[in-house]
C-alpha cells in the first residue's frame, strides 16, 4: 500500500516567493477538489439559479417595457437580460452567503488548530475560497448563461477590453466577498455565536450588491454613496455593469479600481481582526 506524504510544506528563506505561491496554489487546489465531490448539490444549485433567472428576467423586461424610453436606469432590454443571467451565474461564484466555516470552528474550539498551522488564517481561508470560486465558475456559472442565450436575446460586449476587465472584476468580487464573510464569521470570537450577524449579512448582501435589482434604479446620490461608502456593489453590480458596458471605458476602469481598493481594505481588516482575536484567545487562556 502506498503511504501518504503528510509533511507540511516549509517556506524556504532562499525562495520565499516561489514556496509561498506553491503553498497558496496547493490550498486553492484543495478547495477546488473539495467542491468537486458535491456533484448533486452542484446540479441542484445550477437548476435553482436557472429557474430564478427566468423569473427575474421577465420581471426586469416588464420594467423595461413600461419605462419611458425603454431604458430604466440606463439599461436597454438586452443589457438587462445579460445583467440577470450573468448575475445568476455569478451568485455561486461570489458566494454572498452560506459560508459559516470559521464561525463554526470558533464555536467548537477547533479554530485553535488553525493558529498552529504555518499559514496565516486569512490566507488559509482565502486560497481555498478561490478554488471554490473556480469550481463554481466552471460548473455553476455556465448553465444559467447557456439558458439566457438560448431563450433570450442578451447583450454581447463589443469593446475589446471589456471581457478581461470583467474577469479582473470577478476576481476582486470573490476576494471582497471572502473578506466580508471572514469579518462576519469572526464576530464569533466575541459573541461566541455569529448567527445574528450572519443573518444580517445575508439580508443586506443581496439587496446592496445588486442581486434583486440593478442599483442604478436607485437615485444617483444613493447609488454613488453605496459604491463609495460600502464594498457591496463591488460583489455583483460592478462586474455586471462592466460586462454590459453600462458606462464608458474610463468609468469601467474606475469602478474596478474602487473594487481593488475595497479588496485591499477588507483583507487588511481581516488580518487586524484576526490579530486582535488571537490576543483575546491568549487572554482567556485559549
UniProtKB/TrEMBL annotation:
Keywords: Membrane, Transmembrane, Transmembrane helix
Annotated transmembrane regions: 43-68, 80-99, 133-152, 164-184, 196-215, 253-273
InterPro entries tied to this protein: ABC-2_transporter-like
Pfam families: ABC2_membrane_6
Organism (species): Actinoplanes auranticolor
Protein name: ABC transporter permease
Amino acid at each position: 500500500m502506498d503511504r501518504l506524504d503528510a509533511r507540511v510544506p516549509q517556506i524556504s528563506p532562499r525562495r520565499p516567493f516561489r514556496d509561498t505561491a506553491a503553498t497558496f496554489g496547493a490550498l486553492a487546489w484543495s478547495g477546488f477538489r473539495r467542491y468537486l465531490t458535491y456533484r448533486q448539490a452542484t446540479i441542484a444549485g445550477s437548476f435553482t439559479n436557472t429557474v430564478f433567472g427566468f423569473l427575474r428576467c421577465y420581471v426586469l423586461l416588464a420594467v423595461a417595457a413600461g419605462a419611458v424610453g425603454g431604458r430604466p436606469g440606463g439599461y436597454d432590454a438586452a443589457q438587462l437580460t445579460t445583467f440577470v443571467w450573468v448575475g445568476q451565474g455569478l451568485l455561486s461564484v461570489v458566494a454572498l452567503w452560506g459560508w459559516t466555516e470559521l464561525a463554526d470552528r470558533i464555536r467548537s474550539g477547533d479554530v485553535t488548530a488553525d493558529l498552529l498551522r504555518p499559514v496565516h488564517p486569512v490566507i488559509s481561508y482565502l486560497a481555498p475560497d478561490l478554488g471554490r470560486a473556480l469550481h463554481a465558475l466552471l460548473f455553476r456559472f455556465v448553465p444559467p448563461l447557456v439558458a439566457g442565450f438560448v431563450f433570450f436575446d442578451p447583450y454581447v460586449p463589443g469593446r475589446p477590453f471589456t471581457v478581461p476587465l470583467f474577469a479582473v472584476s470577478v476576481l476582486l468580487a470573490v476576494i471582497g466577498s471572502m473578506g466580508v464573510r471572514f469579518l462576519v464569521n469572526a464576530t464569533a470570537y466575541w459573541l461566541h455565536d455569529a448567527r445574528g450577524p450572519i443573518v444580517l449579512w445575508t439580508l443586506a448582501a443581496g439587496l446592496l450588491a445588486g442581486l434583486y435589482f440593478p442599483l442604478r434604479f436607485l437615485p444617483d446620490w444613493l447609488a454613488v454613496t453605496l459604491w463609495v461608502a460600502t464594498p457591496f456593489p463591488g460583489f455583483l453590480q460592478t462586474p455586471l455593469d462592466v460586462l454590459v458596458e453600462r458606462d464608458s471605458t474610463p468609468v469601467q476602469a474606475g469602478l474596478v479600481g474602487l473594487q481593488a481598493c475595497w479588496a485591499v481594505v477588507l483583507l487588511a481588516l481581516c488580518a487586524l481582526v484576526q490579530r486582535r482575536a488571537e490576543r483575546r484567545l491568549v487572554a482567556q487562556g485559549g
